[in-house]
Amino acid sequence: MSTPHDLVGAINDLKKDLNAIVLAHYYQEPEIQDVADYLGDSLGLSRQAADTNAEVIVFAGVHFMAETAKILNPDKLVLLPDVDAGCSLADSCPPDQFAAFKAAHPDHLVISYINCTAEIKAMSDIICTSSNAVHIVNQIPADRPIIFAPDQNLGRYVMAETGRDLVLWQGSCIVHETFSERRLIELKTKNPQAEVIAHPECEATILRHASFIGSTTALLKYTQTSPLDTFIVATESGILHQMEKQAPGKQFIPAPPTGNCACNECPYMRLNTLEKLYVSMRDRKPEITMPADIRQAALHPIQRMLEMSV
Ligand code: 13P
Ligand code: SF4
């Protein structure tokens, strides 16, 4: 079946026909960002998924995000344009190995970053995102030991910000580990007026050069309100589209990866395209599903996150 010439028009028609909402992450390609009903970071997207009245949720993001929407909306149809849009960070925490890790620390509270599978969420006490991890850890009594999974870089950042000693799972994101400190210093030397801003999934060698660290939404807000007009941005480069749109006239330079590659583009996020978004709505698939017991066990830690967030 051929795709229509006016894909955006066709997607907008399908939104009405299906009573669908398109939720998109900032790492999606610009055409998808522009057709989304809501664009946000993982916390914002979870809140939208929890609050929407739409019957169909089309998740232009990666699998763990669409899974979270399904956990919050078991009776709704949740679509992911490309079902292979996974996440290296989620993959770095296999459920069987994590179960053994958790069993080795029986008295520990388990706080898991939302970038994990539904199985890991089901084994967790509280979920967090990059925008509320510090705030959530700060609410846990000081004498309660904590496992933090799966992102070791975010975990180390939370340890530095809270002064807490966390037991870290050694996972990481291939995109945020790609930035080169040496090339970042070179770039900063050539652009001394530029301010480095970074996502906390980056390694400490990058974060130590950043004057602002935050979630994608926090980084975006910062560039809008900062009096400065040039930024070196250490996160997936898809967010530059929104930064340029929302602060025209300011300059945004992607932080340089180690090699001469487009490794600061997430290969999973970029599997989704406008065509696949249209086809998923037209065909009402691929649909996100999961076993009921996993879904039910994963719901409580997500709800705790929503309750504990500001
Ligand atoms: P946030 O948008 O919540 O900052 O997360 C970034 C990310 O890793 C999405 O995969
Ligand atoms: Fe996962 Fe990293 Fe891609 Fe985010 S940017 S979806 S953490 S691989």
Describe this structure in words.
With 310 residues, this protein is α/β, with parallel strands linked by helices. It has three domains: 7-85 and 269-290, NadA-like (Rossmann fold, 3-Layer(aba) Sandwich); 89-173 and 296-308, Rossmann fold (3-Layer(aba) Sandwich), CATH 3.40.50; 181-254, Rossmann fold, CATH 3.40.50. It is built from 15 helices and twelve strands. It has helices at residues 7-18, 30-35, 42-51, 63-72, 88-91, 95-103, 118-122, 133-138, 152-162, 181-190, 204-207, 216-225, 239-246, 274-283, 292-308, and strands at 20-25, 38-40, 56-60, 77-79, 109-113, 126-128, 146-149, 166-168, 195-198, 212-213, 230-234, 251-254. The strands form three sheets. Strands 2-1-3-4 form a four-stranded parallel sheet, with helices on both faces. Helix 4 links the parallel strand 3 and strand 4. Helix 1 runs parallel beside helix 14 (274-283), helix 3 (42-51) runs parallel beside helix 4 and helix 4 (63-72) packs across helix 15 (292-308). The longest helix is centred in the C-terminal third of the chain and has 17 residues, at 292-308. The protein binds 1,3-dihydroxyacetonephosphate and iron/sulfur cluster. Residues 25, 41-42, 115, 129-131, 199, 201, 215-216 line the site of 1,3-dihydroxyacetonephosphate. It holds the Pfam family NadA.
